[in-house]
Amino acid sequence: MSEVHVYGVVPATAEFEPGEGARLIVHRDVAALVRDLESTQVRAVEVVREQWRVLEAAIEHTTVLPVRFGTVMESEDAVVREFLEPSHDDLSATLAQFDGVVQLTVKGSYDEDALMEGIVKRSPAIAKLRAQVSGVAEEASYYERIELGRLVSGEVEREREYDGQAVIERLQPHALAAKLEGHSAAESAVNAAFVVERGRIGEFSAAVAELERALEGRIELRYLGPLPPYSFTGAQAVGAPAWA
Predict the structure, then answer these.
(1) What is the mean pLDDT of residues 70-91?
(2) pLDDT in tens, 209-220
(3) Is the pLDDT of residue 235 over 80?
(4) Fewer beta carbons within 10 Å, N or C terminal of the chain?
(5) Are residues 15 and 48 in the same domain?
(6) At what angle do helices 124-133 and 142-171 cross, to 10 degrees?
């Protein structure tokens, strides 16, 4: 039995050739970006990776609203009847809102040695406790090490807050909107998403390169995009089951 995997929504007037075997289901002013796939072939991890590739290829040509990862519907008729038709006006308005813009994401990771060195310099309490446990067996300094970990964790969070806001302030003048997102790793310094006009991507990229030079030796930046506006639209809800 063939199912329809829904990846995203684009304007019905979009002119591009979807990759990865994807196709468009058009309904009035909007179109669902989908792929037909036999259910026996489905592996969730493969579909998620494929969805990223399809959406990132589409954003090079047109405005794209992402749909929740792993969304599967039973047929083309169901895509129209349960999703495109009841959500048409909202989808059309959101596509218009994000016309001509993309998401660019800036992620940063701390150099752990540089981070710890800075924390010790700024915190006499941490420096003193660190010296106390240095060279002492873990069993004999158990509670001191717990307290040291707590103090260091608090300083790292303060550092993240400061660095995140600094990155936003530095790059926001080159964007229409910006937001900080959650951290997925202990060494994560910043995870910031920006809405940028297509015509200003070069300007934004130059600002990121300048910021990267300023942070060299302390934070290593990664720059992702252009992307669909994942962080600013939310994944469009579809009235169909999805993988957990």
Answers:
(1) 92
(2) 999 999 998 999
(3) no
(4) C
(5) yes
(6) 140
